[in-house]
Design goal:
24 helices; eight-stranded mixed β-sheet; globular; alpha/beta; 673 residues; 21 strands
Length: 673
């Protein structure tokens, strides 16, 4: 029996037509609708699959051509070793920087225009920290030997100057050495006033210029110290301090409300000598008698008009006028004078080369302007060298381990002839200082003398380490000494009571709560004082042994006082005035076979750094399975470019089981990933 379906008749108007269409749609069966949906879904999937296969095949073809097409190796734009962990951001920033750095063609006239490295193109590409001034000195030294470099024109107020007078003094020596090769050096300031530190540096240049409406902030030296005792009292914190004498003033800011006589004496002593040195330096440079200059300082700061009147500057000029002076000085008729930053000059000369056989990243610009990223292994150098180890900042566990590692590597390295230890530290814990000190006799036992170069400060634990070295160099402005020991405890019982917290203690042992929150008992104080006394006796003994002091000499210096480098030389605490370059040169003179200088501990290889940056908790390789699904921006491009560069250079065997494409990215042999 056939079922007859009748369509109800509706009046011919717009609303009825809409209702009629809805009725017809509702009459389609469930299976019919499911069939249509399924058919549409498979059609979309098929379209996506065909597109993906086609696109994948095209990309595969491009990758094959990319890997197999021989190309002329491009000229490296920048060669850099890696000293810190490499992140994706670092790599992308570096590539962006190079993409924006168009190939420079320079002639025989170059003028350097700064004394710092650009933040995004630092001396060591992978280091985002401020660059040590020693690197600036290195580039200045190289530039002084480059016949294309005619001079340097610097806005000294915008140079990220070091905070310490000692470091600025080393920069001054670098500029003076640059000038001695016959090259000119002009200093100027675009600021409202040339700062005092900038002016101190500027006096190592041939000429000093300021704006007509500006001036010089020359006014003498001062030190403002903040004391926090009242704040701690308000918080209920009591400081139990045990030290070796009134000149050990490191904790005075927490235990006093103003200078003690000894504290003020120490500060005045250092400032007076620094002031005298600065006045002597500037007066010699400006051809003014020292007494007249010291009277003149009391009239500062100076407007440009007065600065010219007193011969403190050489002229009032705008930056464009100074630039034109430099061009005329180059005597470049119908030739271009290129004003380059230190970063640009470094790229141009390719002087920063890695060493020691580590693998390193090389960014290279090809003829078509594109960037290649290569991973290479530099052949191991067989040149004898000076090992440079740095002890910078407070001496704590991490710094102790870092220095110990540097000494251990330098002592074991047969290419290291001698060691230079750069110290810029106010001190730290006794035991960490002692651990670093121990490396010096171990180095000497291995036949490697240790020379110390003092930066801004070498005090307390810093001098504890330095006194055992073969020879100590410091600038006249360095701060040296503080031979003394202290310990302190913060009693916070009253602090907790102020906020409604009470405590009670059960002690098993007379001194079991010595580091608790209560004040020291007499018994506990006696124990700590004994420890401080013994540590101080050991400190004195190390100085007597290292500096060959007699009783009179040690009693004179072991008062916890600090001195400038010039004063320390007179007291026998150091051997010679000079900077890091002088120390290294002295070491080379004593060990003529040591031609190179290399920092220890050696930087980790790029493999180790990438492994550390991306490895899983177990440390077994680098888990890249999630990267394959959603790779970080630029990661696969970097990997393919690295593989290609390594293959072209004939060094693919040195890539240590790297599986670049499409999933594996392993730096550890036999890694499960």
């Amino acid at each position: 029996m056939t079922e007859t379906v009748t369509t109800p008749s509706l009046p011919p108007n717009e609303d009825n037509y809409a209702k009629f269409a809805a009725q017809q749609k509702n009459r389609v069966g469930f299976f019919t609708r499911a069939y249509r949906v399924t058919r549409g879904t498979f059609a979309v999937i098929g379209l996506i699959t065909v597109s993906s296969v086609g696109f994948g095949g095209y990309q595969g073809y491009k990758f094959y051509k990319h890997m197999t097409t021989p190309t002329k190796r491009p000229i490296p734009v920048q060669d850099v070793p890696s000293e810190t962990s490499v992140g994706e951001k670092d790599i992308i920033e570096g590539v962006k920087d190079l993409l924006g750095d168009k190939k420079k063609k320079v002639g025989k006239h170059i003028v350097l225009k700064d004394l710092h490295f650009e933040a995004d193109t630092s001396y060591n590409f992978f280091s985002k920290s401020d660059q040590p001034h020693e690197n600036i000195l290195t580039v200045l030294k190289e530039a002084s030997q480059d016949p294309r470099v005619q001079g340097i024109v610097v806005d000294v107020d915008y140079q990220n100057l070091p905070e310490g007078v000692s470091d600025i003094q080393e920069l001054k020596w670098g500029v003076e050495a640059f000038r001695k090769t016959g090259k000119f050096a002009y200093a100027y300031s675009e600021g409202a006033q040339m700062g005092q530190a900038a002016y101190f540096l500027a006096n190592s240049f041939d000429k000093i210029f300021v704006l007509p409406t500006a001036g010089i902030d020359l006014k003498g030296v001062s030190a403002t110290v903040f004391f926090f005792k009242n704040l701690l009292d308000n918080m209920g914190v009591e400081v139990d301090l045990i030290n070796t004498g009134p000149h050990k003033t490191a904790m005075n800011i927490l235990t006093q409300t103003s200078f003690t006589p000894e504290h003020k004496e120490d500060v005045e002593n250092v400032l007076t000598d620094l002031y005298d040195q600065i006045a002597e330096n500037i007066s010699d440079s400006r051809k003014i008698s020292k007494p007249d200059f010291m009277k003149l300082i009391d009239e500062g700061p100076f407007h440009t008009v007065d600065a010219l009147k007193h011969n403190l500057v050489d002229g009032q000029k705008y930056p464009d006028e100074i630039r034109q002076m430099a061009i005329e000085k180059c005597a470049a008729e119908n030739e271009t004078v290129h004003f380059l930053s230190l970063s640009d000059y470094l790229r141009l000369t390719k002087k920063e080369k890695p060493s020691g056989g580590n693998k390193f990243v090389r960014f290279q610009k090809k003829e078509d302007g594109s960037i290649s990223i290569g991973l290479f292994a530099e052949p191991k150098s067989t040149t004898k060298r000076v090992a440079l180890i740095r002890l910078e900042g407070p001496i704590q566990s991490e710094m102790s381990q870092h220095c110990h590692k540097g000494f251990k590597e330098a002592i074991k390295d047969p290419l290291v002839e001698t060691i230079v230890l750069r110290i810029d530290s106010p001190g730290g814990t006794v035991h960490d200082s002692d651990l670093i000190w121990r490396n010096i006799p171990l180095a000497e036992k291995a036949g490697k003398q240790v020379y110390v170069s003092v930066g801004d400060v070498c005090a307390s634990g810093g001098y504890f380490v330095a006194c055992r070295s073969h020879r100590i160099f410091a600038t006249p402005e360095s701060i040296v000494g503080s031979i003394g020991v202290f310990t302190a405890k913060f009693a916070m019982e009253n602090t907790f009571q102020k906020i409604g917290i009470t405590t009670d203690v059960v002690e098993i042992g007379k001194n079991s709560s010595i580091w608790g929150i209560s004040k020291l008992t007499e018994s506990q104080r006696k124990v700590l004082y004994r420890g401080v006394e013994l540590a101080f006796d050991q400190f004195r003994g190390r100085v007597i042994e290292g500096r060959k002091f007699n009783t009179e000499q040690i009693n004179k210096v072991a008062t916890a006082q600090v001195w400038t480098g010039r004063q320390a030389l007179q007291l026998g605490l150091i051997d010679e005035l000079g900077g890091l370059d002088d120390t290294i040169q002295h070491a080379k003179n004593n060990f003529p076979n040591a031609k190179d200088v290399m920092t220890y501990p050696r930087p980790a290889s790029i493999f180790s750094q990438l492994k550390e940056a991306f490895s899983d908790v177990s440390g077994n390789g680098i888990r890249m399975y999630n990267f394959a699904k959603n790779p970080p921006k630029g990661m696969m491009e970097m990997a393919m470019a690295m593989q290609r560069m390594a293959t072209q250079s004939g060094r693919s065997g040195e890539t240590r089981s790297m599986y670049w494409y499409p999933v594996r990215f392993s730096f550890v042999k036999n890694s499960p990933w």
